[in-house]
Amino acid sequence: MPVVISQETLDSAVTQGVITTQQRDRLYALERTGSFNAEDAAEAAEENLRLIGGGNDLFVTVGTILLTVGFYFVLNTLLPGQRLWIAALVAVFSWGLAEVVTRQHRMKLSSTVLSLFFVISFTVALGLEIFARYPIQKPESIWQLLALRQQVSSAGYLFLGGTMAAVALYFWRFRVPILAGVFAIAATLLAFLQTAVLLYDGVTTGAVAPPRLEDMPELMRAALYMPLICGLVVFGTAVALDVYDRERRKIWSDCAFWLHVVSAPMLVHPLFIMATGQDVVMGRIEPDANATIMLAILIIAFVYVALAIDRRSLLVPTLAYFGSLGIYYLINSTANSTGIPPFALILLVVGALIITFGAGWQHIRRLIVRPTLPTSVLDKLPPIKLPSIKQA
């Protein structure tokens, strides 16, 4: 009777060093086609997001969702109006279910769904408890808003700090990569809260002059430094994890994937406004020729960085942002001109880049990154491998 080795077993063998990534990829290709050739190797070289463990994982995920939702509605019937207890029990239920699905069977997609169930239910329970302790009413005047400083800051610290602690504990127990992105988001919000509290204290003590109405555009531009700094910190952490796990055999590379997804919007939006001078928040997004050139330079820079660190997870949100921005401009533009709008060209470039990189990412990476970076830098980045080796 033939012995069948599952994909999870092969991935585990790579993680434990029993076989190499190249050997695993050759086995994948042999299983799919019965042979191994250059085309199979090229296909194996594409980035693989380990989000789903196969058909059984998808099957169990559906059961997990149905079971958790059913448990929620049972609690709604047994504990009507007890939202705090319902949310807390759903969090406990999600944790208990993860002990089987994640700890014992290592099902990737099911584990991701359960971790999100836990985070959502825990934050709801924590938010309800904090709101009960710090009842915050809608302010009717600026003076009432200023008087809420102590309550808002204390509630914010407890909520965000508690969320980060719970996410860290869950990750320590179950090692679910998406929680790295959740933790980064909570840490970013905490940094925003701390910055707002420091500015408030500075204004109330007289150390910082209160802004005038004519200073608001400059103030909003200065506020962009906060998400930019947070984005750089998250991006730097993701790159550090990529460097630590260059072969992408461990969970840290999957955590880096989600950190890149989180960092991309925080980097792209501030850099776009700073480079082009366009005020997206206030609705003025009609870049002139110079802004269009700066936008093109930004796209090229992000493309090169994504190629260097071998992360399409950084590039996809970037191109999606620029593409959606261009679509917004074209739809809302009332100009009646026979010329081609600059952003139409940007859309063409973005679309062409997505298709081109999707068809030959590894080949483009070898052509562009290898000749332009010194060996000392290349040795620290995810390796540029031959087409026969698959990037995890």
Name its key features:
transmembrane; 16 helices; 392 residues; membrane; transmembrane helix; DUF2157 domain-containing protein; mainly alpha
Summed up:
The chain is mainly alpha-helical. Helix content is 74%, strand content 0%.
Q: Explain this structure to me?
A:
- The protein is globular and about 60 Å long.
- Helix 6 runs antiparallel to helix 8 and helix 14 (312-332) runs antiparallel to helix 15 (342-372).
- The chain has a domain at 78-208.
- The chain is mainly α and 392 residues long.
- 74% of the residues lie in helices and 0% in strands.
- It starts with 6 loop residues before the first helix and ends in a 14-residue tail after the last helix.
Beta-strand level of the residues, as a percent range? Answer: under 5%
Number of helical stretches of at least 4 residues = 16
Number of strands: 0
Distance from N terminus to C terminus (CA atoms, Å) equals 32 Å
Low-pLDDT segments: 33-46, 334-338, 388-392
* Helical content (DSSP H or I, runs of 4+): over 70%
The radius of gyration is: 25 Å
Structural class: mainly alpha
Please summarize the sheet with the most strands: none
Question: Which series of helices and strands comes N to C?
Answer: HHHHHHHHHHHHHHHH
> What is the mean predicted local confidence, pLDDT?
76
Shape: globular
